[in-house]
Amino acid sequence: xxxxxxxxxxxxxxxxxxxxxxxxxxxxxxxxxxxxxxxxxxxxxxxxxxxxxxxxxxxxxxxxxxxxxxxxxxxxxxxxxxxxxxxxxxxxxxxxxxxxxxxxxxxxxxxxxxxxxxxxxxxxxxxxxxxxxxxxxxxxxxxxxxxxxxxxxxxxxxxxxxxxxxxxxxxxxxxxxxxxxxxxxxxxxxxxxxxxxxxxxxxxxxxxxxxxxxxxxxxxxxxxxxxxxxxxxxxxxxxxxxxxxxxxxxxxxxxxxxxxxxxxxxxxxxxxxxxxxxxxxxxxxxxxxxxxxxxxxxxxxxxxxxxxxxxxxxxxxxxxxxxxxxxxxxxxxxxxxxxxxxxxxxxxxxxxxxxxxxxxxxxxxxx
Amino acid sequence: xxxxxxxxxxxxxxxxxxxxxxxxxxxxxxxxxxxxxxxxxxxxxxxxxxxxxxxxxxxxxxxxxxxxxxxxxxxxxxxxxxxxxxxxxxxxxxxxxxxxxxxxxxxxxxxxxxxxxxxxxxxxxxxxxxxxxxxxxxxxxxxxxxxxxxxxxxxxxxxxxxxxxxxxxxxxxxxxxxxxxxxxxxxxxxxxxxxxxxxxxxxxxxxxxxxxxxxxxxxxxxxxxxxxxxxxxxxxxxxxxxxxxxxxxxxxxxxxxxxxxxxxxxxxxxxxxxxxxxxxxxxxxxxxxxxxxxxxxxxxxxxxxxxxxxxxxxxxxxxxxxxxxxxxxxxxxxxxxxxxxxxxxxxxxxxxxxxxxxxxxxxxxxx
DNA sequence: AAACGGTATGTTATCGTTAACCTACCGTGG
DNA sequence: CCACGGTAGGTTAACGATAACATACCGTTT
Lengths: 367, 367
Fold this sequence. Notes:
The structure is a homodimer. Chain A is an alpha/beta fold. Helices cover 43% and strands 14% of the residues of chain A. Chain A has helices at residues 11-18, 22-30, 37-49, 56-63, 79-94, 108-120, 134-145, 169-182, 202-213, 235-250, 264-276, 310-326, 354-360; strands spanning 68-73, 98-103, 125-128, 150-153, 162-167, 188-191, 223-224, 258-261, 286-288, 305-307, 335-338, 341-344, 365-366. In chain A, helix 1 (11-18) packs across helix 2 (22-30), helix 1 (11-18) crosses helix 3 (37-49) and helix 5 packs across helix 12 (310-326).
């Protein structure tokens, strides 16, 4: 009895061996309908012996669902995206769905490819956590219009039938900047403006708002990006953006006394640039990051940053998506914005003083 | 003419609109067979108007291939895995395959779930880059036996019909340790032994070999793991392992003068523990990591580490897999081990002296 | 004894696409 | 004028699983 690995085993093969019809095998495998105990056991035994593996294509085709969800992220190495995906997976797993992740490397073209690929393979729904762009938004709208359930995370794009989860980054940026202002800083730089996003970046708008509200002038030369060569920007290259941007700021005649970076990687790059220049943090320059990635509490000095409830954003997006998959696909958009939380560490306040800052404002968390 | 997003558009729908048969539509969409130019254009126009999306399930079912490859990784946030996946994607994309990534969170159970999920959905092949375990190896063997092309990366498991790509970590561990020995260190610790892997970890064996070869005693108390609570170990928790392990070593009466960490995250944790203890690196304790993740050149001090050609491992695994998918699935195993390269930075040699170390051994790279 | 509901199967048709085969037309070269 | 090869398309039958329906047998209940 030689194995013939050429042709995969089908229900019909098992049925022949077990002297029943394929339908009975199907029932036995899925536990649906009536099957005599002995029959079921015989069928399952044969299936195991023949190393049967169900054909998800045929199954999905007939059942019109694959119990599969796709997630598109821009950078697989980004701890923020990683944490999102954990939240997503937690929820999906409880409901028996598999998660397939597609990486777009922050390119709009590959974003679209990922959408298409997932839609073609009839994922039951798609979670999108990449940066928005005109072309990808358009394709996304087509998908949603054609009935594919979609849930967006932190994506600046709204559609009446796509759910949306995000963090209140405007407020986060505002609080980060206010924290620096409260510490007495007046010349505060911003690192991480990119060409395509321009000024729409919410955490940057929060920075502007805080500056304006406290009557501080916003100097254009204190607002820097990276080299802006390409849009491709994995984690470690945003770190370069931070390094280069900080280097630019350090060359100014009147350099800033504090900087707010678009994310923690960028902030880490800035930390390095400052240290290379022989300056002290936070005494000479204070630094605030964004995201509170795990590494933020392990840099030296540890990094003051803004934490967004990352895993919760993932799990909420998944819950929204499942509700849409299993309910009405045309139901109105669900939307949820999570509050951010300032986490004060040594990059803005010397270790010894951290405690007192906390007491002055109970809103602030200390790590 | 209202849209009916309920039922997705099929070839038959387009055929009706364009006054041809579904077969002609199929030919027009795929560019196969003869189709009159005008017909093709009419068909394509109708398809676009109707927002047609091909059904990959039906297509895959009929064609017996999905042009899809699955990849299983243990930790999505691990830059090493990220870089592997980039290598994989590069190659797959050139050949028109999509990549779906499944994350197992370093759990054997979820490893198996990922395999099953990918096999069920009839991925044309699977790339596995998770840690080996008994149960997952068994399931993997079943899959391979049933004809699914599988390509393994850095996984200590061999099968006659599964290709294997890895780095020569034995040699890497040997060279890292030898480097420390050459610098005059005699008491060298190892951080990162885990309960399940035990002593099979190749880079640890390299450590042992180097110590023995140079006549240095291997002291059991210098070999530490982390808290070993769970097997789940994303990047930042291996960092904790490094911190905790180093803390243990620092409490010894006679502490080591150098440590070799199982990977860069672990090494970063060790760096932090040493700095917290007020000791200098490398003067008091030298540290070597493994993997050369992007952050390794941005820590302070920068991290001496062992670089493995990561992206190449990914692309080679993908090439092996494609060869198997498109050729004979029963072809004998291809196997390739990549050489590692010691990268000397400040955590073992003070910045000023790095140059001279390089000259004494042209094998060593300087970053 | 007929009717009924529960149990255990078998039959048929279909999901959407495409490989394989078949038909038919056209112009051209022998 | 016919055979032939190229072109343009249609027809049929799967791919593998399962929903929907049909069958058949049992033991009860009325």
